[in-house]
Amino acid sequence: IARYLSQQPFGDNGQFEFVLDEGTVIVEGVFPTLNNPLAIIGVAEKGYMSVEYRISMPPGHSSMPAAPTAIGILARAVDKLESTPQPSQFGRGPELGLLHGITPYLNFPLRLVLSNIWLFGPIIESMLSRKPATDAFQRTTTAVTLISGGEKENVLPTSASATVNHRTHTADSCQKILENNRRIINDDRLVPQIKTCSEPSPISPYGKHIYAYRILEQTIRQTFERDRQPIIVAPGLMLAATDSRSYTNLTKNLYRYSPFVYGDDDYGRLHGDNERIRHSDMQRGLNFYFHLIVNNQLESISEKKLN
């Protein structure tokens, strides 16, 4: 689709006004003392990198084991990677826009801290790191997702391998993460092979002065605003990969947003057992896309009249 669209003439300069893909959602109960629902518009998305680490060792019989085995060496490396997070990139990505958006709705101590990020930056980093759902906004994540080794229970393994999946922060790159891993593992017997490398996306412009962002914010409020509990709309980082990366040549205004509500207990069901969506959320999601199309048409007509 992206290839076809890139060959078609659109607008005055062949560019889309904006592209909206699936992405970040409305969250509840994720940030401490924040009682309002928070709609996060993904103005950038993390990169995607998978690295296989493999070690080869001489064969042998389990009755006369040489220590450590290939599996033992690999296990130590896996433990190091899981217990040593990638460096925090707090303040170098769209997470600042997210924190500025929620600050007025927090209790006084947190408002004080977030209003003075220049002073309390290390404290904020520590607070974000307490939950995987918030820590992922400020750093490249590490997840060991595949592992293999050994062929028979009485034979020493001649090789063992593990695949590590990283979701790369916008301030990082595949090469930087590979170098960080080398320092963390500190064992040249493990040979890395990059299986997949997709760098983080650029950060799209955001704010009320940006037409596309303004339309999205307006439509979110129109669809999800509740009586006596205003919804917060703020820019943020999409933690997973979307198809929007295929459309970077069509517009600089790429946004990722899914019009559904997630509670703190919903994250454990993503790609897991009992993954689901509420019936009411499905209806509001349909309403969102309907109003987005209508609002975009009305805004375009108004701007043409003004010009």
In short:
This protein is α/β, with parallel strands linked by helices. The protein has helices at 2-6, 70-83, 95-102, 108-114, 117-128, 132-135, 174-185, 211-224, 279-306; strands at residues 19-27, 38-45, 47-56, 141-149, 159-168, 191-198, 232-238, 254-262. The protein has two domains: 2-45 and 203-306, no CATH class; 47-198, 2-Layer Sandwich (Alpha-Beta Plaits), CATH 3.30.70.
**Count of strand segments:** 8
What is the CA–CA distance across the termini? 33 Å
Please count the helical segments. 9
Shape: globular
What name does CATH use for the topology of the largest domain? Answer: Alpha-Beta Plaits
Overview of this protein structure:
The chain has about 300 residues and is an alpha/beta fold. The protein has 2 domains: about 1-45 and about 205-305, no CATH class; about 45-200, 2-Layer Sandwich (Alpha-Beta Plaits). Helices cover about 35% and strands about 25% of the residues. It is built from 9 helices and 8 strands. The longest helix is centred in the last third of the chain and has 28 residues, at about 280-305. The mean pLDDT is about 90.
Fold topology:
Elements: H1 2-6, E1 19-27, E2 38-45, E3 47-56, H2 70-83, H3 95-102, H4 108-114, H5 117-128, H6 132-135, E4 141-149, E5 159-168, H7 174-185, E6 191-198, H8 211-224, E7 232-238, E8 254-262, H9 279-306
Parallel strand pairs: 1-8, 2-7
Antiparallel strand pairs: 1-2, 3-5, 3-6, 4-5
Helix pairs in contact: 8-9
Keywords:
307 residues; alpha/beta; Alpha-Beta Plaits; 2 domains; four-stranded antiparallel sheet; 23% strand
